[in-house]
Amino acid sequence: MVGKIYKRKKRGAGRFVQLPEWVQASEAWATLPPGPRALYIELKRRFNGSNNGAIYLSHRDAAAAMNVHRNTVGPWFSKLEERGFIFLTQAPHLGPSGIGRASVWGLAEEATPDGRPARKTFMKFKIPAQILCKGDTKKRTVAEDG
């Protein structure tokens, strides 16, 4: 027998972005607006399995990839960082020759290449009580909700 024919067409099928169910089920992801979600997927696209903590993505490149203005993505980076999905490993700066260097990011969902486990800080995110009770006319405290 020659071999299985169906496997021949699978070579070089292309890369994909994996977004696990446990990430999508987290409270931080459920309350995340669509813009930061798209940015996270764009960051994840640049992750190749071994470069966590060394993912280069500038605001201009992110804006061009998502077809939005460059000033739009700045708050999206901040939102992802405050929720714990990404972390900054190197801030943007001018290099020795005056050429700008992009920010270097890491994904909290993935382990780092030096052997450290994933941070998963987004799993600790909780919605503040003020946001939960936005439509209520009665003012509540955290102790009352309980």
Question: How would you describe this protein?
Answer:
The protein is built from 7 helices and 5 strands; from the N terminus they run αααβααββββαα. It is α+β, with helices and mostly antiparallel strands. The chain has a single domain, classed as Winged helix-like DNA-binding domain superfamily/Winged helix DNA-binding domain (Arc Repressor Mutant, subunit A, Orthogonal Bundle), CATH 1.10.10.10. A 3-stranded antiparallel β-sheet has the order 1-5-2. It has a two-stranded antiparallel sheet with strand order 3-4. Strand 3 (93-94) and strand 4 (100-101) form a beta hairpin. The longest helix has 12 residues, at 34-45. The radius of gyration is 20 Å and the shape is globular. The chain starts with 20 loop residues before the first helix and ends with a helix. The mean pLDDT is 85.
Q: How is this fold's topology laid out?
A:
Elements lengths: L20 H4 L2 H4 L3 H12 L9 E2 L2 H8 L6 H11 L2 E5 L2 E2 L5 E2 L2 E4 L21 H4 L9 H4 L1
Antiparallel strand pairs: 1-5, 2-5, 3-4
